[in-house]
Structures are given as C-alpha cells and as structure tokens.
Specification:
heterodimer, A: 241 residues, mainly alpha, two-stranded antiparallel ribbon, 4 strands, 46% helix, disordered C terminus, B: 200 residues, Methane Monooxygenase Hydroxylase, Chain G, domain 1, Ribosomal Protein L9, domain 1, three-stranded antiparallel β-sheet, 5 strands, 56% helix, elongated, GINS_A (chain B)
C-alpha cells in the first residue's frame, strides 16, 4: 500500500472497499440479492449461513446480557434492530430458496446442476414436496385416468420426454443487470462467460449500482466499449442476438 | 365437443381472483374424467378394429388410425387440463400455508373450498415445512416483511384469552386491548386476522 504522505491512492481505496465488502453481513446481503433476482436456484452458501447463525446467536446473547445489566436502553435497541435486520436477511434468503423449490420441484430434482445446489435439508424438503404433490395428484387425477396415462411427468406412456405441466422449468426471460460482483445470471459464470444461452427477451430490467468503473458488457463480444467514469446508478441491459 | 368441459374447468380457475380459491368443482371434474374414459374406450376399440383387420397400428394411415389419434390427443388434453387445475390450486394452497401459518386452522370459509385431498395436501406440506425449520432450528416464516421497528403497536381483534406466551412477557389478550409487542411475535396473529397493527 505505497502512498505519498497522507493521501489515499486509488489502490488503497480499492483495498479498503474490498475489505469492507467481505464482512459476513455484506456477503449475506449479496447472496440474498442474487437469490432474489435470479429465476433459478443458486448454489447454497453453506459456510456463510453457518457463520451467520453463529453470529446471530452471539448477538442475541449480548443483547440479553445488556438488557439484564441495565445497559443504556438506546444502545440496546440499536443492537436489537441490527440483530433483527440480519435475521431478516438470513430468513428471507432461506425463504426465497424454499419458494423456488416449491415452484419447480420436479425440474430441480431431475436436473443435476440444480439438484447439486441444494443443501442437505433442502434436498430432504424437495423429496417430501415431490412425495406430497405426487400423492395429491395421484389421488385426485391420476388414479382415475386410464392405464398408460397415469404418469406424473409424462402425458402418456408414448411420450418421449417428461412433458407434463409439473415438470416445467423456470422462465429465463428476464434480462438482468447486475453489480460487478454478482457471479451468476441464468447459469452463466460471469468470470468465464461460458454457459448455455436460453433465449432471453427484454422483459424486465433491473437497475443496479456500480461500485467501480466498469464498461458495458456485450455478451457477443462484438463491440468495444467506452468507459464510465463515475459511481452513478447505471441502467444497462443485455442485448442478445 | 371434445375438450369443452375441460376448458370450462380451466377457465373457471382462471376467472377467479388471483390468489383466491373457488370451491373445488367436483361435478365438472368428474365429468371430465368420464370423458377421458370414454375417449380411452373409443381409442381401444378403434385399435382393436385395426388389429383385427390385420393392419399395423402405427403406420396404417386410414380413417381409424386418425380417429384413434384424435381420441388420444383429446385424452391427453383433458389430462393436462385436470392436472393444471389441481396443480395450480395446490400452488395457492402452499401460499396460504406460508401466509396464515403452518398447521393452524384456516378460517372456515377457506377450508370449505378444499377437496379432501387438498386438505390432506395442506397438512402434509405444513408438516414438511415445519420439519425443515426444526432441522435448521430457525423459523423461516416469521419476518415476512423487512423490519422497520422492532416493536409494534397492535390492537387485539378477537378474544385470545390470557397466558399466551410471548418471547419476553406474557400478556392478557382481551378483545380491543392494545399492546406493544415484538414484531416477530405479533406477525402470526396479524396474518390470521386476530390482531391488527396500529400505524401512525
């Protein structure tokens, strides 16, 4: 971190921001944001969730101690609010994932990429969901259908693939825009820019803030770009050919 | 006409208010199933007829083949409509489980609209969620809205009696009494319409 007397070089500022952005709360926020914005389920942040739970527990104990020892009630309620917000982040993160599982249970279970992204508890949850749904569909519809038409996933025995309603996949139609650090959109690994290309249409836009100077991204790599120089809200869209 | 009843069923589902269930239309449902079985019988008799005539079922392109094809296609369309009806209702039921609280009694007006299997599905799904939450030892269905204040003021709408244990005190919830409760405690009651939040 070489610098001239007293001034922060751009490099130092970057380092400082890099440090701040790796606190657990920031990581949790990022994971939560990613999960909320993407139509598919993303890899489970197991270590992060574990650490977050431990820290929440620590905070709860601290707050209880403060309350009992008659600490300044303003400080106590500030700690309490902070605690509530972190708890909300964690719960919402898990909740969004559960709701995605509920929506696309058959598809996630069948597709290995997604199945591997579940935590152990989520896997068990998916199994139970599928079992419950299967049982419900069986009782109401399938058992009354003629033979050869009784499958949950296939329309009839002669279908070549699983073409029933229940095995639909998430809609990849949203164009997303993202902050520099977001790693995944629709199964793209941004760093490597490899991945499958579902046919997106320009249905939704997400506005995001850039943390540092970046250039527009053109996925087909065809155009050079001019740099943006300021930290403003940038609205960009992905155009695909 | 083929598929018309199934179409009515789906339309009925679609015409309701979004997120609200209508009563499970058993009668129409049964009629669609009957239609499916009729199609299947017709399909089978046509195939048998072709086989008796010594024709290869897959390839012989005569009137019977196409007749059978039409019955098959109508049948799977009916199946798709029925499955869609049940599946989408199940989606709404799951949302109710999230909103109202797991394994709690739903208000009777909603309960009446379920079919028997749907009631069972609701219970099974609630159990599933509860199991997940206990495995993580974390309640995932509180804090549904980002917290603005840790404590909120509520007014009790129904008589809940005394001795309800909250996380930091127990209080007597008589009707119309007002309390200053922790948000996470009050949320369940608010969602079930037993309390209302006082803002402003």
């Amino acid at each position: 971190m070489a610098s001239s007397a007293g001034e922060w070089s751009a490099e130092q500022i970057d380092d400082y921001e890099a440090l701040i952005s790796t606190t657990d709360v920031e990581l949790l926020k990022k994971a939560w944001r990613n999960e909320k914005a993407s139509p598919e389920i993303l890899p489970f942040e197991e270590a992060l969730v574990k650490r977050a739970k431990e820290q929440i527990q620590l905070m709860e104990e601290t707050v209880d101690d403060f309350e009992e020892s008659g600490h300044d009630p303003l400080i106590v309620s500030l700690y309490q609010m902070d605690l509530d917000r972190v708890q909300f982040l964690l719960r919402s993160y898990l909740r969004v994932r559960l709701q995605k599982i509920e929506k696309f249970m058959f598809y996630i279970w069948k597709t290995d990429t997604y199945r591997n992204r579940l935590s152990i508890e989520e896997e068990k949850f998916t199994e139970r969901c599928i079992r419950d749904m299967g049982k419900h569909l069986e009782e109401t519809v399938l058992s009354k259908m003629p033979d050869n038409y009784q499958s949950v996933l296939k329309q009839s025995v002669i279908s070549e693939e699983d073409d029933m309603v229940a095995s639909r996949k998430p809609c990849f139609n949203a164009s997303l825009f993202l902050k520099d650090h977001v790693q995944y959109i629709w199964g793209y690994d941004l760093q490597n820019m490899r991945g499958k290309f579902p046919e997106p249409q320009l249905d939704t836009f997400v506005v995001a803030k850039c943390e540092r100077t970046t250039r527009p991204l053109y996925l087909d790599g065809s155009r050079q770009s001019a740099g943006f120089d300021s930290r403003q809200v940038a609205i960009r869209t992905l155009f695909t050919v | 006409m083929h598929g018309r009843k199934a179409y009515e069923l789906v339309k009925e589902f679609g015409s309701g208010e979004k997120g609200h269930l209508k009563i499970f239309n058993n009668e129409l449902f049964e009629r669609v199933i009957e239609e499916c079985n009729e199609h299947h019988n017709a399909l089978q008799s046509l195939i048998r007829k072709m086989q008796e005539e010594g024709l290869e079922v897959q390839t012989a392109k005569n009137a019977d083949h196409y007749g059978a094809l039409i019955h098959h296609i109508s049948l799977i369309r009916n199946k798709r409509c029925l499955m869609a009806y049940v599946f989408n209702r199940a989606e709404i039921i799951r949302d109710l489980a999230w909103k109202v609280g797991l394994l709690h009694e739903l208000p009777r007006e909603i309960q009446e609209k379920f079919s028997d299997s749907e009631e069972q599905y609701f219970k099974d799904h609630s159990k599933s969620l509860k199991l997940y939450m206990s495995q993580l030892s974390l309640d995932v269905n509180v804090d549904m809205v980002p917290p603005k204040d840790p404590y909120i003021k509520v007014r009790v709408l129904e008589d809940l009696g005394s001795g309800i244990i909250l996380s930091d005190k127990s209080a007597n919830f008589a009707r119309h009494s007002m309390h200053f409760l922790k948000r996470t405690d009050a949320e369940q009651y608010i969602a079930r319409g037993l309390m209302e939040e006082l803002t402003g």
